[in-house]
């Protein structure tokens, strides 16, 4: 396809697709002629105490959803194991479990896909990590210390394997989007990184694969996150530029709703450094637990 001069867009995902992912595909279609969606639950971005084993998956459903997107996708890349980290072997999962999806022409063989850059067990594993050192420190990086090195490393591998012209990431994972942008700049990948707008349910909850684990009660209460962000935005637009006040109100609202705050930070949109007063474009980022489910959300504030 490349030799025919076709341009390629990549949408990296961990599966259990929802409308938010499908909107990334539609965004990618604006930029390139061909679309590749990768589905790979990356063990390297989960620490042993995190929810890798319960991360939802529905391979068959994912394929059907991708088929339903107008314009469609051209390939679904579902590698079996992209990275074997000897320190983290207990974290390995079989990404090929569901590969016999039963949908004709879905592009997935029953025996599992093997390409040269995918190393199978017994070859000594991998030991090279990609780190975006400053940007990965704050926000999600504080409570998830291995998360971003796992993301940056696996996205590097996906880029090298798929060789896309454009890759699309959701702004819901704001820090991830900024880290990938920086990595691509710092390491001279010839890939355009597009940030696609966050999608919300009708009540405001940001779409996430993890929402499926919320009980109906938690689901209802979790809306306090987006409500707090909206309130903060309107207060800022109304002249309240002191971030302390905006954060306190959000923390109070979410805590009263039964959530447990991981962080609530107003940061500069580029450096992701915390700011005390809004003077330039910022993004208000929140992570909070409802029961065993950790949710993240954010809102850009441009005043
Ligand atoms: O955002 C995600 O789903 C993942 O972090 C990504 C980018 C696919 C890397 O595993």
Automatic annotation (TrEMBL):
Gene Ontology CC terms, in alphabetical order: cytosol
Statement: the UniProt record of this protein carries the keyword Ligase: yes
GO molecular function annotation: ATP binding; pantoate-beta-alanine ligase activity
Domain of life assignment: Eukaryota
InterPro entries per UniProt: Pantoate_ligase, Pantoate_ligase_C, Rossmann-like_a/b/a_fold
EC number: 6.3.2.1
Pathway note: Cofactor biosynthesis; (R)-pantothenate biosynthesis; (R)-pantothenate from (R)-pantoate and beta-alanine: step 1/1
GO terms of biological process kind: pantothenate biosynthetic process
Reactions performed catalytically: (R)-pantoate + beta-alanine + ATP = (R)-pantothenate + AMP + diphosphate + H(+)
Transmembrane segments: none
Keywords tagged on the record: ATP-binding, Ligase, Nucleotide-binding, Pantothenate biosynthesis
Family (UniProt): Belongs to the pantothenate synthetase family.
PANTHER family xref list: CYTIDYLATE KINASE/PANTOATE-BETA-ALANINE LIGASE, PANTOATE--BETA-ALANINE LIGASE
HAMAP family for this protein: PanC
UniProt name for this protein: Pantoate--beta-alanine ligase
Native organism: Corchorus capsularis (Jute)
């Amino acid at each position: 396809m490349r030799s025919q001069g076709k341009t390629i867009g990549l949408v990296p995902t961990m599966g259990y697709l929802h409308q938010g992912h499908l909107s990334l595909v539609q965004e990618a279609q604006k930029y390139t002629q061909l679309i590749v969606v990768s589905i790979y639950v990356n063990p390297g971005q989960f620490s042993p105490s995190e929810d890798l084993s319960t991360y939802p998956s529905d391979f068959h459903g994912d394929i059907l959803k991708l088929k339903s997107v107008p314009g469609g996708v051209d390939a679904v890349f579902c590698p079996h194991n992209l990275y074997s980290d000897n320190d983290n072997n207990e974290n390995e999962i079989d990404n090929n479990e569901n590969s016999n999806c039963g949908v004709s022409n879905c592009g997935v063989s029953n025996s599992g896909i093997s390409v040269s850059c995918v190393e199978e067990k017994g070859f000594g594993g991998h030991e090279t990590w990609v780190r975006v050192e400053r940007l990965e420190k704050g926000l999600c990086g504080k409570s998830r210390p291995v998360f971003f090195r796992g993301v940056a490393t696996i996205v590097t591998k996906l880029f090298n394997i798929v060789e896309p012209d454009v890759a699309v990431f959701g702004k819901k994972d704001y820090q991830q989007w900024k880290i990938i942008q920086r990595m691509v700049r710092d390491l001279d990948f010839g890939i355009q990184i597009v940030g696609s707008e966050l999608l919300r349910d009708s009540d405001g909850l940001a779409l996430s694969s993890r929402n499926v684990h919320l009980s109906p009660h938690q689901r209802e209460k979790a809306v306090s996150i987006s409500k707090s962000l909206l309130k903060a935005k309107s207060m800022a637009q109304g002249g309240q530029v002191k971030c302390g006040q905006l954060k306190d109100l959000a923390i109070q609202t979410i805590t009263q709703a039964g959530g447990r705050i991981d962080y609530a930070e107003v940061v500069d949109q580029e450096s992701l450094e915390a700011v005390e007063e809004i003077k330039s474009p910022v993004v208000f980022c929140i992570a909070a637990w409802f029961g065993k489910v950790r949710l993240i959300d954010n809102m850009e504030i441009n005043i």
